[in-house]
Task: structure prediction
Amino acid sequence: MDEQLEQLMRQLSGLNEQVRNGAVYQSLGTRLGKLMDGIQRRRRTAVVLPDDQDGVKDVLAELRHQLEQNVSVTLTHEKLTLLTAHLSSTDMALRYQGINFTLYDALQQDALDSAQMAFLLDELSRPDALFSHILEPANTAVFGRSARVAMLAVVLHFVTPDVQSHTPDLRRIVILAATYLCLETDTRGFVNQHGWAHAFTAITDLLTVLAGTEALPRADKLFLMMTLLERVKRLNTPLIYGENDRMAMYLSELANRHQLYADTLLLSLKQWRQQVALHRRPDTIAGWNRFFNRKRLLDSLRLQSELPASLQKYLNSTIDFLG
Result:
């Protein structure tokens, strides 16, 4: 793995430990922001895509047949590896309607045994695949990154927590999710000929699943919420494919779980507004994109009927005189 990515993961792990120990709270957003701002981006390099004629369609057909016949899924680890590798395919029919939907059906039918579930979790959470070409300008590797994150969320949702062999390393997944948020900047939604990229929908889905995981400490959920907010602050391209609605739903649900989340979210939104006020009128496209990303997120939050009263009151009293 890239040396810079390894260092970032170590830094995030250390910061996460400080949050867990209560040594860091109010400065968390600032510290996360500094880590993001210090990331060195790379020039574009060639993305190596999987060969869609390598037999994956036969493996997919075999899995579908077993699910339709309601018989045991006999996929070997080698075949599961092949399926997950093709989550990076730019063929939207194969990647999305094919592998994504079929694996979801298998999980919904409880068709995978504990060994297959554990193997699938390991495959989906490999850093080299999750962070493939993520430091470079927008590229086709985003389809594989987002598809893996989205499928990781689905698998975690279906994991049976009381079965030891199913128990995932949640701390590792928290650090991977935080690292992904620090690194990802591709905000594209639907891409012609290739289908959905939707990286920020995928990562929000993963955060939502983790937020509902009882075994995860509050500190970790707080850590991930703040990482998401600090990333959104820094996006220079628009989120316009429903990501803000998904994020608002996640934030509202989390804020209702404990007063700690509601208080922290409120504090973060107030600080964000103060930062915006320092730059009243952006003079670049990136600046206006950041402004309207924030506006769309706040608008989506206002529409959340279950949002805690303190947040509702703040949002309804806040007007930004810009534009």
Q: What stands out?
A: The chain has 15 helices and two strands.
